[in-house]
């Protein structure tokens, strides 16, 4: 099929609390093509994970998608029934969670969990389901996959458990995977191995991958394009090299300046001043203006979407593009 695998248009996800409405996702738009990796980055509370949960229909009350469209293979999946979403979730759209124990049941063997995952969506024999499970473990680099099928989650290290979670996500060769910071708790060596495998698998299987992370270093080495989120909105989006080498939005610049590798040895980190606004007290206009060194009175109004080439941003005072 021509066109992007996933296209999100003006997505709004709100939580209706006793104290007011929390606009966790506030007009987010992006798309991901077959074989492409999109990095979704930002501080905690920026709306990254809720965007992923919204795509999969996993937002629980009092939250709900209140507007916009989520087009998967050209079909709008917003408003599908629970039964209809179950036919997509796990088979055609999969998710990898930050904590693999959210995916794995500690009292069931790996074989039981993987085989049941296959049988839940496809009418195949248990033998075929087991063979597919074994092959998926081998695909993510788990040695002796036949033997490890009989193991339980507690018999794996954290990195190996995450590989099992990735293998489960790959069982049905989904067209789209949402990965919610799946390598955050892993050491650097294991993290780099898993990132290399995900790059190879995305290309080999032709999947679209949305990689949610707060780590710009991970996104720089993995994603083809990056979308920077702040206060429920995408403030800058474009090819990874363009966005990270020539950041336009002051928030993107602040994130990059906060990375230790970008600061001379012994020099203090240039942290972004202040804190992200509380969800119920977000200012009008640009939500970043209270922390921005370039803010003026015009920032009290909503900044329009501007673009130069393949990069787009929401800011009245774009930095790198203006200088260029």
Question: How would you describe what is shown here?
Answer:
- InterPro entries: AAA+_ATPase, ABC_Ni/Peptide_Import, ABC_transporter-like_ATP-bd, ABC_transporter-like_CS, Oligopep_ABC_C, P-loop_NTPase.
- The chain is of the alpha/beta class.
- It has 2 domains: 6-92 and 174-323, Rossmann fold; 107-171, no CATH class.
- The protein contains 11 helices and 12 strands.
- It has helices at residues 48-56, 82-88, 110-121, 126-139, 145-148, 158-170, 188-205, 216-222, 240-245, 250-257, 320-323; strands spanning 6-17, 20-32, 37-41, 63-72, 75-76, 93-96, 176-180, 208-213, 225-230, 233-239, 305-308, 311-314.
- A hairpin with a 2-residue loop joins strand 9 (225-230) and strand 10.
- The radius of gyration is 21 Å and the shape is globular.
- The model has no long low-confidence stretch (mean pLDDT 90).
């Amino acid at each position: 099929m021509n066109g992007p695998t996933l296209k999100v248009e003006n997505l709004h996800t709100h939580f209706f609390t006793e104290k007011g409405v929390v606009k966790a996702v506030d007009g987010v738009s992006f798309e991901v093509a077959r074989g492409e990796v999109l990095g979704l980055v930002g501080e905690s509370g920026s709306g990254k994970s809720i965007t992923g949960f919204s795509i999969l229909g996993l937002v629980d009350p009092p939250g709900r998608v209140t507007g916009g469209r989520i087009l998967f293979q050209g079909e709008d999946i917003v408003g599908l029934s629970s039964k209809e979403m179950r036919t997509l979730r796990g088979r055609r759209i999969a998710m990898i969670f930050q904590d693999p124990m959210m995916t794995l049941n500690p009292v069931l063997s790996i074989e039981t969990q993987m085989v049941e995952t296959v049988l839940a969506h496809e009418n195949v024999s248990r033998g075929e389901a087991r063979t597919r499970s074994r092959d998926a473990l081998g695909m993510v680099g788990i040695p002796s996959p036949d033997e490890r099928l009989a193991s339980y989650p507690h018999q794996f290290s954290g990195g190996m458990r995450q590989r099992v979670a990735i293998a489960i996500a790959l069982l049905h060769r989904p067209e789209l995977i949402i990965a919610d910071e799946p390598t955050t708790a892993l050491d650097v060596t294991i993290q780099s191995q898993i990132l290399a495998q995900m790059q190879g698998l995305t290309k080999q299987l032709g999947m679209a991958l949305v990689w949610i992370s707060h780590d710009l270093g991970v996104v720089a080495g993995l994603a083809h394009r990056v979308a920077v989120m702040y206060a429920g909105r995408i403030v800058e989006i474009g090819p990874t090299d363009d966005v990270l080498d020539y950041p336009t939005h002051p928030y993107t610049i602040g994130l990059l300046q906060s990375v230790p590798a970008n600061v001379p040895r012994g020099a203090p980190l240039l942290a972004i001043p202040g804190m992200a606004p509380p969800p119920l007290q977000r200012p009008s206009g640009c939500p970043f203006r209270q922390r921005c060194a370039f803010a003026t009175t015009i920032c009290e109004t909503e900044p329009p979407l501007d673009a130069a080439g393949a990069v787009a941003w929401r800011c009245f005072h774009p930095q790198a593009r203006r200088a260029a």
